[in-house]
Amino acid sequence: xxxxxxxxxxxxxxxxxxxxxxxxxxxxxxxxxxxxxxxxxxxxxxxxxxxxxxxxxxxxxxxxxxxxxxxxxxxxxxxxxxxxxxxxx
Length: 89
Fold this sequence. Notes:
Elements: H1 7-14, H2 17-41, H3 48-55, H4 59-73, E1 77-80, E2 85-88
Antiparallel strand pairs: 1-2
Helix pairs in contact: 1-2
């Protein structure tokens, strides 16, 4: 069975090199949001600063992505000072 092609692999076949520059930020965004979801589900995000470092983004970018994620997942995200982690409400 053939393995499904990823976004970047499809772009390599379809789009010219100049267009690929615009695909990378989208792929990076999806990767960060997926990792964010995984860490929140496992409740091992750490403080906001630690969470941003785990995702390799700035603190400001973390809060923007969290707002996007809440809209995408149609759920709220809380923070537990006791557990030092974000969690889904």
